[in-house]
Fold this sequence. Notes:
Elements: E1 8-14, H1 22-33, E2 37-43, H2 49-58, E3 63-66, E4 80-81, H3 83-88, E5 93-95, E6 100-102, H4 105-114, E7 123-127, H5 131-142, E8 147-152, H6 155-167, E9 173-178, H7 183-186, E10 191-194, E11 220-223, H8 232-240, E12 243-245, H9 247-263, H10 269-279
Parallel strand pairs: 1-2, 1-3, 4-6, 7-8, 7-10, 8-9, 10-11, 11-12
Antiparallel strand pairs: 3-5, 5-6
Helix pairs in contact: 1-10, 4-5, 4-9, 9-10
Amino acid sequence: MKIKGSTNIVGLIGHPVEHSFSPPMHNAAFKALGMDYAYVAFDVDPSNLKSAIEGAKSLNIKGFNVTIPHKIEVMEFLDEIDPVASLIGAVNTIDFKNLKGYNTDGIGAVRSIEEVTSIKNKNVIVAGAGGASRAISCYLAKYGADSITILNRNVERAEKLAGDISDSGLIDDIKSDSISAINNYLGDADILVDTTPIGMHPHIDDEPIATFDNMHEDLVVFDAVYNPNETVLIKEAIKAGAKPVYGIKMLLYQGAESFKIWTGQDAPIDVMENALRQTLNLE
Length: 283
């Protein structure tokens, strides 16, 4: 990659950002397409968020991905919010052309799952009730899931999320319960989505939210955690003969969606996936 005076800068803001796999993924895509772009990660302290957005605009930065802890707070410094991002209540992509915020996390998860099965008319369990759960649940509803059951340790948060999605009018059958009741729902579920951080590096030996003996072979199991690639939950799914969907796919597809927002071009999915797999030592 040759950085020139004409090079367009896009990047990531978060705190911390050292662990991010996005720079190698996006830079491989720009290189493959011969595009004069570079992707950089910026560690932005929460107290500097407003000045970071103003500074980026002044510096003619073209776009940002946004990660923890800025996804909600950044919305107040934008001129426009995409309707789905408004419903989710969080932004993970900014396009500086019109200072508009988007959320591509949900579409990333949906595209990952739809590599294995259609979401339409399926019964889905979503574990967790944080930002990732909200983003993914909104898109599951949008893509025609028959029912969604949100399970969380804090049941009130699950109830709140279920209520918000119900109010959107995207789905009629949405309920909530404690995550400790997961085995009551697995038998009738078509898809299990885990948005909790359980099993994330370095806590790779955490106890999974569900074990193989409560899963069935037709169950599709998606874990949003991508480091490690094979989480404790994915291992249980494989043991059960269920269909695993890896978190790396969500990272890939949300990145591809951001790429298109910034550049107007379709992302080279294969190139991005290869770069991710190399970065995660999965080759």
